[in-house]
Specification:
alpha/beta, DNAb Helicase, Chain A, Rossmann fold, nine-stranded mixed β-sheet, ATP binding, helicase, Replicative DNA helicase, DNA binding, DNA-binding
Length: 534
Amino acid sequence: MAEEPWNDEPHDDGDAGFAPPEEDFGGVDGGFDEPADGAGAGRAYDGADAPADRPYRGGDRGGRARGGRGNGRGYVPGATGTPVRDALFDRVPPHDDDAEMAVLGGMLMSKDAIGEVSQMIEVTDFYQPKHQTIYEAIINLFSASQPVDAVLVANELLKSGELEKVGGTDYLHSLVASVPTAANATYYAEIVHQRAILRNVIAAGTKIAQLGYSAEGSQAEDVVNLAQAEVYEMSVGKVRQDYAAIGPVVHDALDQLDKLQQGLVNKGVPTGFRDIDDLTQGLQPGQMVVVAGRPAMGKSTLGIDFARAAALHHHMTTIVFSLEMSKVELAQRIISAETNIPLGALRRADEITPERWNTLNGFWSKLDDAPLFIDDSPNMSLMEIRAKCRRLKQTNDLKLVVIDYLQLMTSGKQVESRQQEVSEFSRALKLLAKELEVPVVALSQLNRGPEMRNDKKPQLSDLRESGSIEQDADVVFLVHRPDFYDKEDRPGEADIIMAKHRNGPTETFHLAFLGATSKFKDMPQDYNSGGQGV
C-alpha cells in the first residue's frame, strides 16, 4: 500500500489537553515520526483527523516520536501533522503550553495558589517568554503584598511596557478562563517543572555531545570531568545541598556566637517572660515548641502571650491559627491582656466607662501597623496552614507561628488511627518550622494522667494521642496551676514546666496567672530566693 501524504492542514489545538507537544520541529506542535525504512509506515494524524479505531487523546502519554519499528500508536496533539525528523538538534524542546497557561490562570484566581506554585517552579521553568513575563509580574505583585488578578497584572505589565508583548489584556483573561478552579494549580506546576527538567537534560546532553565531538583523544578524561560538571550544574537549581564539611559549619557557629556577643543578631523570638527567655534565649528558628495542658489550664493564654510579645511588643510578624476560638474571642483576650480591662467587662456594655473607652481607643491607635495575623478558618487542613505560612514568609517576613490546637486539626484523608494522624501533623509542623526557619508553637491537650496523681502535676508522657509530639518537639512546656484543683493551694500562681529542652537544661518557671485579664505575668525577681522555686 502506497504511503499516504502527510497532513499539513492546520487546525485549532485548543482542546489539546496537557500532553506536551514533544518531539517536533520548526515551531509547530505535534506530529508522528515514521521510520525511514518503512517498517512501520503510516501517517500522522492531528486531533481532528484521528481515525475512529485510534481515538485522539489530548493527555495521552503515547504522543511521542518513535524511530524504531513503528507500531502505529502515539499521536501528538498539535497545530499540524507535520512529520518529525529524528535529529538531535531539530526538535522543539519539551514543553506544555496548556499546563503553563493553567498554572498562570490558577495563580490569577487564588493567592493560595501563588504561594504553593512559587515554591515549586521558577520563572525559567516556563518555556514561552510571554508566560515568563506574566509569571514575574504576578510574583512582583504578590511579594509586595498587593492583590493579584488579571486587571492588576495587566496594569503592572502596562507600566513596564510589556502588556502588548504578552498578548494584551484579552490573553490574561483567557488564562483565567482556561481553568475551572485553582485547586489543581500545583498539579499543573509539577508538569511545567518536569518539562523544564527535561529541557535542562537535553541542554546538558547537547553540550556533552559537542564536547565529545570536538575533543581529541588525549582530552577524554577532561571531557568526562566537564560532562560531570554539566550534569551537576543542571541539577543544582532544585536540589539543596544536604551535607557540609565540619570546618565551615563550626566556623559559622563561632561566627554566630561572636555576633551574639556583639549584639549584632537577635537572640530569638522573645516569649515576654524573663526567666524563660534567659534560659532559651528566645524561641529559635526551626524549633517546634509544644505548649500542653489539661482543659482550662491556660495553654491558649500562654500561646497568645507568646504571640503578643513577638508581634505587639517586638514588631515581629506572627500568625495565630485558632481552631478553637473565633477571631472576636481572640481579639477580646488580646485587648484585655494589653489594656488590663477585665475580659468579662468587654462582654458587658454597661461596664465600659468613658475612661475605659479612652484606654481602648489608645490601644487601637497602636495596632495600625502591628504585624499580628489571626486565622480562625474552620476545619483547617495542614496544606492550608503551610500555604498561608509560606505566603506570609514571602510577603511579611514571618517570624512566629502559633497553632491552637493540634488535636483539632484534620487531614481530610482516611487514616488507620487518630494517633497516626496526629503523628503526621506533628512531623509536618516540625518540617514546616525547618523549611521556613521560624519557631512553630503548637498547643496540645494532655490526657487524664495528671488527674490520677496526688500532686496533679503533668508529665511528658501525658501528651495526648501521640508519642510523636514529644519526639518531634524541641521544647515542651506543660502548664500547671495548683489552684485549679485546690483554691487554697498557691492561688494565682502557675508552674510552666519545661519538660523537654533539646538544646539545654529543663526547668520549672513560676508565673502569676491573671485570669481576669487572660494573661500570665512574671513573678517578682526575688520570688525563687524565697524558697518557692525549684
